[in-house]
Amino acid sequence: MGRLIAPTSSSAPSRAALYLRVSTGRQAESDLSIPDQRRQLEAYCAGKNWDIAEQFVEPGNTATDDRRPSFQAMIEAAMLRPPTFDVIVVHSFSRFFRDQFQFEFYVRKLAKNGVRLVSITQELGDDPMSTMMRQIMTLFDEYQSKENAKHTLRAMKENARQGFWNGSRPPLGYRVVVAEQRGAKLKKKLEIDPIQAEKVRKIYRLALFGVDGTGPMGLKAIATHLNDQNIRTRDGGRFGIGAVHHVLTKTTYKGEHRFNYRNYVTKAPKPESEHTVSAVPAIVSEAEFQAVQDSLRLRSSSFMHPRFVAAGTLLGGICFCSLCGGAMTLRTGKNGRYRYYTCSTKARIGKEGCTGITVPMEKLDNAVADHLERRLLEPQRLAILMGNVLDHRGEWIERRRSHVTELRQRAAEAAAKLTRLYAAIEDGLAASSEEGLKDRIAELAVIRDEARADAERAEAAIDKLGPTLTPERLERFAQAARERMRAPDGSYRREHLRAVAQRVEVISTSEIKIMGSRTELLRTLAASGGEESAILRVRSFKPKWRARNDSNVRPSDS
Predict the structure, then answer these.
(1) Mean of the pLDDT values across residues 64-78?
(2) Which of 4, 270, 328, 510 has its Cβ near the most Cβ atoms within 10 Å?
(3) Would you say 502 and 514 are in contact if contact means Cβ atoms under 8 Å apart?
């Protein structure tokens, strides 16, 4: 005999779950909304003679989506068989959801398990008319939510335009301070945190010059170096590739903080016309920031495939056929005895795709390398390219020294506070076992030690800058570089060429065109000479660093 199912009682359910929600954490901390909601919901349940089975409180979450911990816990409890309660009681339908589609989805999902949703301020029945009215109400709630969001965003954008901070956690290197008070509101701004800012500057130095001028470092190498040196994030964690990339690409560090640049739901970037840019204190200069962006672009897989970054082939990834724009790839003959650069389009499709060009590898490599050696590594030419940057170090040094002063001052303040705390303990004004005192002493000690260490690193960077690049030193450097270009392993030649020439177009078997970045050339030359400030005085990313047609070179000339 089958199991008998008892008929559903027509009387009101006896077990209720209360759902209380406010939209922001600030409301949860200081507003009376949640206690007032609880009082009204409890009174309503008492009037209905319902037992309150559970309470779910959502302190500071929007109702436009279901990413709410308490909400999900309530739904999970309601979907048990049998459910732990029969009805969910809310102050208004907007407390449950402000999205009409999601609202109906969850109401129907609950109804299938025998759980109803009741609003104490919008009581409706179960007939079709009540269902239609509920849908109209929730549709209006959704519209009102979107209108409120639009007006709130407009106010926040204006706040950002005036240079004030809208909230959230500040970027690494900054801290939030109260700038002024307008009525009951405290207006806040970003200011540089001397200790954390030094970490940001170090990341930029590593990206541009590496360790002691050894050459630009990639994201992974920077993260590894920071972790090896026990340089931690603001929370004491280890640096990862994502954190380093965020620091190197965030415009806030050059003094332009962007608000409303990303959709907070989909995380997709918004058009630049919708961004609001506010001025903040810069941690790095515009030139430093742009030089890093150029360097990241050159390392990007969209600019050069990763397999070519460390390839042994001198021109792999930067050599192209001028007829079709296709890459020139390696082809061999006689079991590898002969090596050629040949048009990949012709090799893949045939003469129908491109008539193609094939050049012996050694001939083309030597032509490009010899041209760079003879025309670029020549003192007069280098002096012209450097322009007026050779003696522009004073500004850079002065800026670095001001950072050192800030760090020294921060360390001295922390040390003075520690001294006062120790004196208070010795004089009996404070007990060493007092709650929180031990943590405060440890915090001040960390601030003092980090500030001193960062100041020493910053001073060491100034000391390593070395003397100014004079014409005599430039000539000695050019001579040394030409000798290294002939190193037996060819490694220096390959790295030097890739830093200077980003594209080599083969026009014919007797003519090629070399294009590159003047910024990369200056970085390659200046970093080796210890001239960090010089490279940052010039920013140029024109496709051709040879302004005249003399950038064309014939392989046969070599």
Answers:
(1) 87
(2) 328
(3) no
Q: Which among 463, 532, 456 is positioned nearest to 195, based on CA atoms?
A: 456
* Closest C-alpha among 44, 41, 45 to residue 19: 41
Q: Alpha-carbon distance 262 to 273, whole Å?
A: 12
pLDDT tens per residue across span 102-130: 888 998 999 999 999 999 988 887 778 87
Quickly tell me which residue has 């990763």 as its tokens: 306
Query: In what side-by-side order are the strands of the sheet with 552-553?
Result: 319-321, 501-508, 511-516, 552-553
Distance CA 4, CA 293 (A): 73
Q: Which CATH architecture has domain 193-299?
A: Alpha-Beta Complex (3.90)
First to last CA, the chain: 100
Radius of gyration of the chain (CA): 34
Q: Which residue has the tokens 């962006």?
A: 293
Mean pLDDT in residue range 455-467? 68
Closest CA to 516 of 286, 66, 525, 508: 525
Burial 187-223, CB ≥16 within 10 A → b, else e: ebbbbbbbbbbbbbbbbbbbbbbbeebeebbbbebbb
Residues in a beta bridge with 508: 511
Strands (DSSP E) contained in 385-500 are none
Q: With a cut of 90, say whether residue 168 has pLDDT above it.
A: no
In whole angstroms, what is the distance from residue 18 CA to residue 22 CA?
14
CA-closest candidate to residue 147, choices 522, 330, 3, 139:
139
The reply to whether domains 15-150 and 193-299 share a CATH topology is no
Q: What is the predicted pLDDT for the residue at 542?
A: 39
Which structure tokens are listed for 181?
């008070």
- Domain positions in the chain are 15-150, 193-299, 306-390+470-557, 394-463
Structure-block tokens of residue 469: 């690049």
Q: For 311-344, write each residue's pLDDT tens digit.
A: 456 777 788 888 888 888 888 877 767 888 888 8
Whole-number Å distance between alpha carbons of 211 and 202: 10
Q: What kind and span of H or E run contains 136?
A: helix 128-161
What's the chain's average pLDDT?
Answer: 76
CATH fold, domain 15-150, is: Rossmann fold (3.40.50)
The one-letter code for the residue type at 430 is A
Show the tokens assigned to 540: 């140029």
Q: How confident is the model at residue 485 (pLDDT cuts 50, 70, 90)?
A: low
Residues forming a β-bridge with 191 = 175
Q: Is the pLDDT reported for residue 482 higher than 80?
A: no
